[in-house]
Amino acid sequence: MAEEKIELRKLAEASLAGKSQLPDSLSGLESRELIRELQTYQAELEIQNEELRRVEINLREARDRFSDLYDFAPVGYASISENGRISEANLTLCRLLGVDRSKLLKQDFTAWIAQEDQDIYYRHRKVILASRKSLSAELRMKKADGSPFWAKIESTVAQAGSTVEQTAGAACESLRIAVSDLSDCRHANELIQQLSQAVEQSGESIFITDPHGVISYTNPAFTRLTGYTVEEATGKTPGDLLKSGQQNAAFYKDMWGSISAGKIWHAKLVDKRKDGSLFPAMLTISPIFLDAGKKVGITHFVGIYSDLSRISELEHQFHQAQKMEAIGTLVAGIAHDFNNSLAAITANTFLGRQHANDATDVVRRFNTIERVSFHAAGTIKQLLTFARKDTMSMQHFPLAPFIKETLKLLRTTTPENIAIRTEICSHPLIIDGDANQIHQALTNLVNNARDALEGVYDPCIHIRLAAIEADDAFRKMHPLMIAGTYAQLSVADNGCGIPQAMIDHVYEPFFTTKGQGKGTGMGLAMTYGAVKSNQGYISVDSMQGKGTTFHIYLPVLPSQDMPVVSAPDENNIAMGHGETILLADDDDRILDTAGDILTSLGYKVLKAGNGVQAVARFNEHAKDIALCMFDIVMPEMQGDKAAEHIRKTHPAIKIIFCTGYDLNNQTDMRDETVINKPFNIVKMSQLIREKLD
């Protein structure tokens, strides 16, 4: 019965397809039932076919999506065949290598790996095939144009092929490789490393805190400045460690108000180190945001300390220089009239002493007047030197022999009960300096030490000269000095010492700790100016009741054979032989007294009150005049201008210029012979004789 139904169904299907007709033997009822059944079956088949078409479309779309995902993935993909060639590659890898896919396929993968890193790839492939695990490696690859780049490759064994093929031998298996460009990552890491090194090696003290001010990081400079190690500082606030009490509550309220509002805050302050010492600093605190662009969400604060200790020292030096500049300007303004007056006094003193005959008391008083006058002139000169307005005569000379010669003179002026011990090095120590200023500086220091020894049992002055190297450790203690070799001249005493509160004032002019009439306060001021003028540095160590040591540091030049420069000395008066001298000065006091002195020295004198008169007198007596002595600053015609007129007709004429001014404020006179007022009669007589002879 079942077989008959199957046969009838086939006939019905053929009938519905129009290929045949149902047999006439079937009854009408049977035919209709069979047709309905066949129609139902056909409808089911059409539904199944439609479903198959939809599945096929979905598969095609999925394949296209996979292809897009594969080609445009963020990393490059490649399939490497068992012979090492590229069988598949996505577009990302093509763009990464800068090559078309058609030119990439079937190429050896190692052709795109830098020669020096190919061994890394071969070892990587061998381990992958042996272990059958996914592994990664970093190596250098190269693009089509030859430019290298760092890449990360992640490899796994391809799953294509039968189990039999995979078991046949790992050497025949292919790989799936993902390639990532590490260039940006490596560059970012390098920048991070550079930033880290910069912070670690920075000379500025840096610390980082959380939003509540708790320290999470400090750099080594912070430890050097404050004395606190990273371990000691971490977990504490800067206030816990460094607050000195020098700033009030309003100061810190302003700070927190600014940084909490996302603003950068900076101010000068004084904080306290671990050892309790105070240090001035400029502190800058900046907020760190979660989103720096929008300045949203403060996550940390970064603080930077700039140590102002050296700047404070420089400011002190600058203010000192300004103060001395003002004094120097004042002194330079009054020097001319003051020195002219002193010149008249000393000249008349010299003449008065000559006429005093054997009146001992009168001679003694003349000597006192002369000594006080030259002391006053020396005070003006010291002020000018301190303010760097005095004339300097720089030359190369060996310091050691010079100091020895100077000490011979100083021994004669030092009381016998004071022991002078010297320790002078054997090396000459050649410097570029003004010998007179160095002599005066040493004299002032020895005199200062002598005065400090009054009433001291077993008084002693120790003078030492040695060469030292200004290395990093030394410069840390003396930050204003540059690297190099220095001559260290030290003058030490075991006297009363200097109170600590007065140390900062010892170089100020007119500041003195000595009693009335025992000191002008100019000795150390002049010494300071002389040392600075000679490109040197001076420091002092003192403890009250224990003595004082002054150190002078002068830069040393490379050693060479140099003549010994003798310390200043005075000899006897040099007399004239009747020669005629033309004397020109606008100050009648100088004209009269200087004329009388020259006459007493054995010269004939012609006088002129200004430059015009001097030129006229010279033209009248040119054949008789052996030498001219002209004041530089005179009305109607300056002394140097008068000399120009005379030299046009008599270029060989010998001229000595005189001045009571600071030479640095006048015409360039470096090539001329110049003496300062008031005159030292002995030196003036020697200079005239030297010119004439």
Number of helices: 21
Radius of gyration: 51 Å
Assign the CATH class of the largest domain.
Alpha Beta
In the CATH hierarchy, the third-tier topology of the largest domain is known as Heat Shock Protein 90
| Estimated share of beta-strand residues | 15-25%
Low-confidence stretches: 161-171, 561-571
CATH homologous superfamily label of the largest domain: Histidine kinase-like ATPase, C-terminal domain
Average pLDDT figure = 80
Largest beta-sheet characterization: 5 strands, antiparallel
Our count of domains comes out at 6
Structural class computed from helices and strand pairing: alpha+beta
Describe the structure.
The chain is of the alpha+beta class and 693 residues long. The chain folds into six domains: 68 residues; 116 residues, Beta-Lactamase; 106 residues, Beta-Lactamase (2-Layer Sandwich), CATH 3.30.450; 73 residues; 163 residues, Heat Shock Protein 90 (2-Layer Sandwich); 113 residues, Response regulator (Rossmann fold, 3-Layer(aba) Sandwich), CATH 3.40.50. The chain contains 21 helices and 22 strands. The longest helix has 47 residues. About 3% of the residues have low confidence.
